[in-house]
Design a protein that fits this description.
Length: 430
């Protein structure tokens, strides 16, 4: 992206409306609508690799002869891969452009999902899973960048759209994997393999998008110019208080989400709820994210300060945890709904990443920093909760910790939601 284009994108919408940039002229008319579909398809593929395995984990462990240690390692791999591979996104984006990298990310997701059901041992299965997770990590970081770059006046709406698609993909894979596996013969290998088809469709759509975007960027920038987002001259995000607030907020909300996905059914079952009902309650919690993932980013995008939303979501979570502490079975449905609302801190923080930087160059650095740091923060959470549960013999202490973590999360959300940008904090001139 050229300097002039970046400056144009950073101007107010009213000023941009009077401009006809070379980039806008060079871009084919079909690219915008098709890119919207591509973003939705990419988002749908960001969680089935994880939640489909969760649904068939026992069968997979038995089939591959995994030890308990290896099984525990696999449950920790997603957050670790998101952190490690997410760091590489800015450099790859600078070299190839964000659209091309997302296309490659979708290809990695598809390849990993196609390979892992045919693995003969745990090592091969883990390697194939890591390949898919690497593609997911890159796409996690760069979708906010693409939204900022191609839809600068609709950051909230577009973030809501792909957050809703992400939540839908998460819920669909969790709810449909077992029934579809049974319908297809009962093999866990078939059950995992079928989700590769969704990733292959995404790759087929992103290939022409990547070609068209690269041609349009080259035509706009002039002969010999790079199509990539320029990140070398962007802000040094580690110097920004807002960047650190976003990273820590991201980490704490991810911690809460992973704890909920991993332990909520067990909390209900230990309270006397049947296994089938506990599974439905988890599905209810996850499904809450589908409509709210669209509503919250749109609302946040219209507000100058998003702290009030962070406080509201935190209060819902605190109420849900208190309910689990005092009456887990009696109010099970209410607590599941409240925690589902609280987990919508994810689309909020993704929206704030797009709002807290002025340019796509700033967004790519902020997105990589916040997500990679945040996922590193989230890794110990489910393990700590499991250890406390095992050694305390109940859920009182783990639930107290889960509720306690929401207090700093709320405070960090207020800090991250302030109307300022990382460029201003780092002294980067427009």
């Amino acid at each position: 992206m050229s300097d002039e284009e970046t400056k144009t994108l950073d101007r107010p919408a009213a000023d941009r409306a009077t401009l006809t940039t070379p980039h806008a002229t060079a871009r084919p008319t079909w690219l915008g609508p098709v890119l919207i579909v591509g973003i939705v398809l990419a988002a749908l593929n960001l969680r089935p690799a994880i939640t489909s395995l969760g649904a068939l984990f026992e069968e997979t462990r038995t089939g591959l002869g995994m030890s308990g240690t290896v099984a525990g390692l696999i449950t920790s791999v997603p957050a670790l891969c998101f952190a490690v591979f997410g760091v590489t996104a800015p450099r790859l984006s600078r070299r190839f452009g964000p659209v091309a990298v997302v296309c490659a990310g979708m290809a990695a997701v598809a390849a990993g999902l196609l390979i892992r059901p045919f693995a003969d041992g745990a090592a091969g299965f883990l390697a194939a899973s890591a390949l898919s997770l690497a593609g997911i990590a890159l796409t996690n970081v760069l979708l906010p960048v693409i939204v900022k770059r191609y839809f600068p006046d609709r950051v909230g709406t577009m973030t809501g759209l792909y957050s809703m698609a992400l939540a839908a993909g998460t819920s669909l894979a969790a709810a449909a994997t077992v029934p579809l596996t049974d319908a297809l013969g009962g093999s866990w290998r078939t059950g995992l393999l079928m989700w590769a088809s969704l990733a292959v469709v995404a790759v087929l759509l992103w290939l022409p998008i990547a070609r068209a975007a690269r041609r349009a960027d080259r035509a706009a920038a002039g002969p010999g110019a790079s199509a990539a987002v320029r990140t070398d001259a962007g802000p040094r995000v580690a110097r920004s208080r807002t960047a650190w607030a976003l990273a820590c907020y991201f980490g704490l909300q991810a911690t809460g989400a992973y704890i909920t996905m991993g332990w909520l059914p067990q909390i209900f079952r230990d309270a006397g709820v049947s296994a089938s009902t506990a599974g439905v309650l988890l599905a209810v919690t996850m499904v809450m994210g589908v409509p709210l993932a669209f509503v919250i980013p749109g609302l946040a995008g219209r507000m100058r300060n998003q702290g009030a939303i962070a406080v509201t979501l935190g209060v819902f979570g605190l109420t849900g945890y208190l309910g689990l502490y005092f009456a887990p079975a009696a109010g099970a449905w209410a607590w599941a709904l409240l925690l589902g609302v609280s987990n919508c801190a994810f689309p909020l923080v993704i929206t704030m990443i797009g709002l807290r930087a002025k340019s796509p160059a700033g967004v790519v650095k902020l997105s990589a920093f916040a997500q990679s740091t945040g996922y590193l923060i989230s890794i110990p959470g489910p393990l700590v909760i499991g250890t406390l549960y095992q050694h305390s013999g109940g859920w009182d202490l783990p639930l107290a910790l889960m509720a306690g973590l929401l207090v700093p999360q709320i405070a960090l959300g207020v800090l991250a939601g302030r109307d300022r940008t990382i460029e201003d904090e780092c002294g980067v001139r427009d």
